[in-house]
Specification:
Blueprint (H helix, E strand, L loop, with lengths): L1 H28 E2 L12 H7 L2 H9 L17 E5 L5 E4 L3 E2 L7 E2 L7 E6 L6 E6 L5 E6 L9 E4 L4 E5 L1
Parallel strand pairs: 1-6
Antiparallel strand pairs: 2-3, 2-10, 4-5, 5-9, 6-7, 7-8, 8-9
Bound molecules: zinc ion.
Zinc ion (ZN) binds next to loops.
Length: about 160
Protein backbone atom coordinates (compact mmCIF):
# COMPACT_ATOMS: atom_id res chain seq x y z
CA UNK A 1 0.00 0.00 0.00
CA UNK A 2 2.70 2.47 1.02
CA UNK A 3 4.65 1.54 -2.08
CA UNK A 4 1.66 2.35 -4.29
CA UNK A 5 1.18 5.76 -2.69
CA UNK A 6 4.87 6.46 -3.11
CA UNK A 7 4.67 5.49 -6.79
CA UNK A 8 1.65 7.70 -7.32
CA UNK A 9 3.35 10.66 -5.65
CA UNK A 10 6.45 10.16 -7.77
CA UNK A 11 4.35 10.13 -10.92
CA UNK A 12 2.49 13.26 -9.88
CA UNK A 13 5.75 15.01 -9.12
CA UNK A 14 7.19 13.98 -12.49
CA UNK A 15 4.07 15.26 -14.27
CA UNK A 16 4.24 18.52 -12.35
CA UNK A 17 7.92 19.06 -13.24
CA UNK A 18 7.25 18.32 -16.92
CA UNK A 19 4.32 20.75 -17.01
CA UNK A 20 6.25 23.55 -15.39
CA UNK A 21 9.13 23.06 -17.82
CA UNK A 22 6.76 23.31 -20.78
CA UNK A 23 5.22 26.43 -19.35
CA UNK A 24 8.59 28.03 -18.74
CA UNK A 25 9.84 27.41 -22.23
CA UNK A 26 6.61 28.74 -23.72
CA UNK A 27 6.73 31.97 -21.78
CA UNK A 28 10.38 32.43 -22.71
CA UNK A 29 9.57 32.20 -26.40
CA UNK A 30 6.43 34.30 -26.40
CA UNK A 31 7.44 37.64 -25.05
CA UNK A 32 4.92 40.18 -23.85
CA UNK A 33 4.81 42.88 -26.58
CA UNK A 34 4.63 45.58 -23.91
CA UNK A 35 7.96 44.43 -22.49
CA UNK A 36 9.72 43.86 -25.80
CA UNK A 37 12.60 46.25 -26.47
CA UNK A 38 14.41 46.24 -29.81
CA UNK A 39 18.22 46.57 -29.67
CA UNK A 40 18.24 49.78 -31.71
CA UNK A 41 15.76 52.63 -31.92
CA UNK A 42 14.94 53.84 -35.43
CA UNK A 43 13.40 57.29 -35.48
CA UNK A 44 10.22 58.14 -37.37
CA UNK A 45 12.05 60.27 -39.98
CA UNK A 46 14.39 57.43 -40.87
CA UNK A 47 11.49 55.02 -41.23
CA UNK A 48 9.65 57.40 -43.51
CA UNK A 49 12.56 58.29 -45.77
CA UNK A 50 13.93 54.77 -46.13
CA UNK A 51 10.72 52.93 -46.87
CA UNK A 52 8.05 53.08 -49.55
CA UNK A 53 4.40 53.28 -48.43
CA UNK A 54 3.81 49.55 -48.36
CA UNK A 55 7.04 48.81 -46.51
CA UNK A 56 6.17 51.49 -43.97
CA UNK A 57 2.66 50.20 -43.45
CA UNK A 58 3.83 46.62 -42.95
CA UNK A 59 6.93 47.15 -40.80
CA UNK A 60 5.77 50.14 -38.80
CA UNK A 61 2.01 49.73 -38.63
CA UNK A 62 1.84 45.93 -38.60
CA UNK A 63 0.12 45.77 -41.97
CA UNK A 64 -0.13 42.75 -44.23
CA UNK A 65 0.59 42.88 -47.96
CA UNK A 66 -1.90 41.20 -50.27
CA UNK A 67 -1.12 37.55 -50.98
CA UNK A 68 0.78 36.83 -54.22
CA UNK A 69 1.69 40.51 -54.67
CA UNK A 70 5.01 40.67 -52.82
CA UNK A 71 8.50 40.55 -54.25
CA UNK A 72 9.64 37.28 -52.69
CA UNK A 73 6.81 34.77 -52.32
CA UNK A 74 7.94 33.13 -55.57
CA UNK A 75 11.67 33.82 -55.25
CA UNK A 76 13.69 30.62 -55.57
CA UNK A 77 17.19 32.05 -55.55
CA UNK A 78 19.73 31.04 -52.93
CA UNK A 79 20.67 33.66 -50.39
CA UNK A 80 19.73 35.42 -47.19
CA UNK A 81 16.62 37.44 -46.41
CA UNK A 82 17.44 40.53 -44.36
CA UNK A 83 15.44 43.21 -42.53
CA UNK A 84 14.40 45.96 -44.98
CA UNK A 85 14.84 48.58 -42.24
CA UNK A 86 18.04 47.70 -40.37
CA UNK A 87 19.64 45.06 -42.60
CA UNK A 88 20.27 42.19 -40.15
CA UNK A 89 19.95 38.59 -41.42
CA UNK A 90 16.51 37.08 -40.70
CA UNK A 91 15.87 34.00 -42.86
CA UNK A 92 17.91 31.65 -45.03
CA UNK A 93 16.65 30.57 -48.46
CA UNK A 94 17.41 26.98 -47.40
CA UNK A 95 14.47 27.07 -44.99
CA UNK A 96 12.04 28.62 -47.52
CA UNK A 97 9.26 26.33 -48.70
CA UNK A 98 6.18 26.35 -50.94
CA UNK A 99 3.32 27.13 -48.57
CA UNK A 100 0.80 28.04 -51.27
CA UNK A 101 -0.22 31.09 -49.25
CA UNK A 102 1.28 33.78 -51.48
CA UNK A 103 3.66 34.99 -48.79
CA UNK A 104 7.31 33.99 -48.37
CA UNK A 105 7.29 31.10 -45.89
CA UNK A 106 10.13 29.62 -43.87
CA UNK A 107 10.30 26.74 -41.42
CA UNK A 108 12.95 28.38 -39.28
CA UNK A 109 14.39 31.83 -38.53
CA UNK A 110 17.71 33.28 -37.39
CA UNK A 111 16.71 33.18 -33.74
CA UNK A 112 19.15 35.87 -32.61
CA UNK A 113 17.47 38.45 -34.87
CA UNK A 114 13.86 37.32 -34.79
CA UNK A 115 11.58 37.75 -31.77
CA UNK A 116 8.18 36.16 -31.26
CA UNK A 117 5.48 38.12 -29.43
CA UNK A 118 1.95 37.22 -28.41
CA UNK A 119 -0.61 38.97 -30.60
CA UNK A 120 -4.28 39.15 -29.60
CA UNK A 121 -5.31 41.65 -32.29
CA UNK A 122 -8.22 41.18 -34.75
CA UNK A 123 -9.96 38.78 -32.35
CA UNK A 124 -7.34 36.09 -32.91
CA UNK A 125 -4.61 34.60 -30.79
CA UNK A 126 -1.48 34.53 -32.90
CA UNK A 127 2.27 34.83 -32.58
CA UNK A 128 3.72 37.93 -34.18
CA UNK A 129 7.23 37.82 -35.62
CA UNK A 130 9.37 40.97 -35.40
CA UNK A 131 12.99 41.93 -36.10
CA UNK A 132 14.55 41.84 -32.64
CA UNK A 133 17.16 44.38 -33.71
CA UNK A 134 14.88 47.24 -34.83
CA UNK A 135 11.38 46.03 -33.87
CA UNK A 136 9.97 45.95 -37.40
CA UNK A 137 6.86 43.84 -37.90
CA UNK A 138 7.64 40.89 -40.20
CA UNK A 139 4.60 38.61 -40.06
CA UNK A 140 3.34 35.70 -37.95
CA UNK A 141 4.46 32.18 -37.10
CA UNK A 142 2.08 29.20 -37.13
CA UNK A 143 2.56 25.60 -36.08
CA UNK A 144 1.33 23.99 -39.30
CA UNK A 145 4.68 24.07 -41.12
CA UNK A 146 6.75 21.25 -42.61
CA UNK A 147 9.50 19.16 -41.01
CA UNK A 148 11.92 19.46 -39.33
CA UNK A 149 10.41 22.20 -37.12
CA UNK A 150 6.68 22.02 -37.93
CA UNK A 151 6.69 25.82 -37.99
CA UNK A 152 5.54 28.19 -40.71
CA UNK A 153 6.94 31.70 -40.58
CA UNK A 154 4.52 33.62 -42.79
CA UNK A 155 6.41 36.78 -43.71
CA UNK A 156 5.61 39.91 -45.72
CA UNK A 157 7.94 40.50 -48.68
CA UNK A 158 7.69 44.19 -47.83
CA UNK A 159 9.62 43.57 -44.58
CA UNK A 160 12.47 41.89 -46.39
CA UNK A 161 15.48 42.54 -48.56
CA UNK A 162 17.32 39.75 -50.32
CA UNK A 163 21.07 39.17 -50.45
CA UNK A 164 21.79 36.79 -53.32
CA UNK A 165 24.41 34.15 -52.54
ZN1 LIG B 1 15.36 45.21 -38.35
Amino acid sequence: MMYRIFLLLTLLLAAFITMSCVRNSESAELADPAKFKPRIKVNEKTWRSKLNDEQYEVTRQKGTERAFTGKYWNNHEEGTYTCVVCGVDLFDSKSKFESGTGWPSFYTAKKTNVAELTDQSHGMSRTEVVCSNCGSHLGHVFDDGPKPTGLRYCINSASLDFKKK
